[in-house]
Amino acid sequence: DIQMTQSPSSLSASVGDKVVITCRANQSITSFLNWYQQKPGKAPKLLIYTASTLQSGVPSRFSGSGSGTDFTFTISGLLPDDFATYYCQQTHSAPPYTFGQGTKLEI
Amino acid sequence: QVQLVESGGGVVQPGRSLRLSCAASEFTFSAYGMHWVRQAPGKGLEWVGVISYDGSDRFYADSVKGRFTISRDNSKNTLYLQMNSLRVEDTAVYYCAKGRGPYTDYSYGLDVWGQGTTVTVSS
Taking the CA of residue A32 as centre, how many other CA atoms within 13 Å lie in the half-sphere pointing to its CB? Predict the structure, then answer.
């Protein structure tokens, strides 16, 4: 099975900051990497799929890049609403479609 | 609007069974693969399994293989998760989620999620 390693596990930032989260796979997943946002007590929300494609309705301050085994997720200009936990997930070829362990973004 | 609503969670003793349901609305349910994802208290997301749009293919995480079964009734726009031989470590919020890609294309993430239903396995 493909293992996903996300870093950092937690991150402190301020409104207006740029933050970067990384996700690494233990084998190539080409570009089949997705990013989700989850707020406490709520379901996850898809932000980015296939590494860099913004889901409909998601603000452009969110972006993603990468291919193969190394991926980054960036928020440019943090807003108060962005403080949440972020997860990567690989959906390359056959299941299981594993998630990273999450990054908690805190003020 | 496009919606998924889970039900069937509760408290159950170890070794017992439980069936979760997920009712879909406002999209062509029969055209999409459907997933279950769970989240133990204070922990991250764990993918549980997926069923193809027509129910012909099912895949599971190793942690639930042989104990959990995913099924669907496209005539009722409903997804199910039958959980047998439950363990304490199955305690979690269970989410159903729609695959963003149609049919058997699972590549594009999960774009619609239910609100989750809580399963507690305890003696």
Answer: 23
A 34-63: CB under 8 A from B: 34, 36, 38, 43-46, 49-50, 55
Q: Mark which residues 61-100 of A lie under 8 Å from B by CB.
A: 87, 89, 91-92, 94-100
Q: Do A45 and B113 touch (CB under 8 A)?
A: yes
- B67-83: pLDDT as tens digits: 999 999 999 999 999 99
Give the residue from B46, B37, B26, B43 showing the smallest Cα distance to B117: B37
Could you read off the pLDDT of A10-68 as tens digits, one per residue? 999 999 999 999 999 999 999 999 999 999 999 999 999 999 999 999 999 999 999 99
Nearest to B115 by CA among B102, B98, B99, B96: B96
The DSSP secondary-structure symbol of A84 reads: S
